[in-house]
Amino acid sequence: MSNQHYTVKAIYSSQEKQIKKFEYELLRSNDEYLKNGFLEELEKNIIKIQEDCNRILTEKMNERNPKEVSKNDEKRKN
Asked: What is the mean pLDDT of residues 28-34?
């Protein structure tokens, strides 16, 4: 039974431009990963973090640069 070492880092910048880092050290045997689906759950959580970050960044960009809606865009909505 071999051990694999995984490091997951999540980095984000707050409004004050301070960078905060979170690092998770994971050390388990291969059998443990297979038994409880840990890697699948970790992957789901990482994807969720990415989606949340993308959503937040998009919202912030839209706040700074509001999109002007053209008449053609309004017609397409109706």
From this structure: 61
